[in-house]
Every structure is written in C-alpha cells, then in structure tokens.
Amino acid sequence: MLNEFKAFIARGNVMDLAVGIIIGGAFTLIVNSLVGDIIMPVIGAITGGLDFSNFFFPLSSTVTATSLAAAREQGAVFAYGNFLTVVINFLILAWIIFLMVKAVNKMRASLEKQKNEEPAAPPPVDVQLLTEIRDLLKTQRV
Question: Could you give the CA distance from residue 96 to residue 100 in angstroms, rounded to a whole number?
C-alpha cells in the first residue's frame, strides 16, 4: 500500500495539482490585496467615499452599529457589501486565469505549428536506394 501511495504521489498530475494549489493560495492573497487596497478605495473615491465592505442590513433589532465588525458583535447581519467585494475578487481572479489559459493555449498552438512545419529529415541512404529500385521496377513492368 505504501508503494502504491508513492507511485500515486510521484505521478505528474498530482505534483502539478499540488503546485497549482500552492500558487493559487498565494495568488489569492495578491488578488485580495488588489481589490481591498487598490480597486475598492478608488471605487469609494469615485462614489463619494462609499466603503462596500461596511454595507449591511441588520437582521435583528439589537443591531445599531454603523460598522460591519461592530454590527456582527451585536447580532445577525446581511453583509452584502462584503459579498460584493468577494464577487469582485472572483471576477478578477477568473479573468486573470482566463488570460493565462488563453496565453498557454496560444503558446501550445504555436509550438505545434512549428513542429508541423519543420521539414522531415531525409530518409537514410539505403531507404533512398530501395525507393529508387522500387520505382525503376515499376516502370519496367509497364
């Protein structure tokens, strides 16, 4: 069973998946920072200082706070502003992944085209001679 596990882990797909998950985790932090530190403040400045992360509806009459963190301490809230921020994170991440996949597919197509355009190596001399003999024999039979 241990040997089967080693064989499973050593397969290329599993290692690629592990690398993808690690890079994806790090990339998620970058996207969160991009949205939280760059995009949302610009949107807030354009919309007159609106901060989407603090948009919420109280679901309880005991919630009187004006910030989301304080409101969550007081009771249940419907935090739609935080949801908007997460949706923007997702859309940015999906767009970047789309562009990466598109670039990789273009690169693969280019490499495949180059491979198909490469001239075939000439056949060995003995094969050329045999081909010539075959062609001569065909002409003599006719």
Answer: 6
- Residues near 75 by beta carbon (within 8 Å), at least 6 away in sequence: 58, 59, 60, 62, 63
Q: Which amino acid is at 70?
A: A
Unique residue bearing structure tokens 């003999």: 133
Amino acid identity of residue 103, one-letter, is A
Residue closest to 39 by CA, chosen among 98, 84, 100: 84
pTM of structure: 0.54
pLDDT band at residue 142 using 50, 70 and 90 as cut-offs: low
Angle at 85 between CA 84 and CA 87, to 5 degrees: 65
CA atoms within 13 A on the CB side of 32: 9
The tokens describing 105, both together, are: 């597919």
pLDDT 10s digits, 57-83: 888 888 888 888 898 899 899 988 888
DSSP the chain: -HHHHHHHHHSHHHHHHHHHHHHHHHHHHHHHHIIIIIIHHHHHHHTTS--GGG--EESSTT---SSHHHHHHHS-EE-HHHHHHHHHHHHHHHHHHHHHHHHHHHHHHHHHHHHHHSPPPPPPHHHHHHHHHHHHHHHHH-
